[in-house]
Amino acid sequence: MTRAKVRTCLFLKREAEEAARFYVSLLPESAIETSYRPDPAGPPLVVEFTLGGAPYMALNGNPEVVASHATSISVLTEDQAETDRLWTALTESGGQEGPCGWLKDRFGIHWQIVPKALPDLMSAGDAAAAGRVQAALMGMHKIEIAGLERAFRGEERKSA
Questions:
Q1: Are residues 52 and 105 in the same domain?
Q2: Fewer CB within 10 Å of terminal CB in the chain, N or C?
Q3: Are residues 58 and 71 in the same domain?
Q4: What is the CATH number of the domain that holds 40?
Q5: Order of strands across the sheet with 46-51?
């Protein structure tokens, strides 16, 4: 295996290994690559892993570190089922939902879970439809593809 020259570093309080194991369980083409343990009996200082084919490292650091949504992991999902699965996994056990497909997981890392339908609809070449899609998106936490498609077509949301 070739080591990546560039990696995104996730600075965590104490749970680098736990977070890396959880993250690689979520997406195909993901794996733990290496762990560096200064004390063989202690937790790793650094865990290198790939997530959906992209290189990352998790670093155990200062317990006072606070992650910011200025940096997030963005996942382009295939369909509503994948969107729902990732959203549920990342928000359970202390994660927090945010607007427009954003969330913060239990480790404090920010994510964007975006169905590929969103950029497809936004770039379909119809400015009015794209505006309606954007307006619909602004009212969502987890992105619902059916709601985006209704907005694209200009349909009012039908109540039950």
A1: no
A2: C
A3: no
A4: 3.10.180.10
A5: 8-12, 54-60, 46-51, 31-36
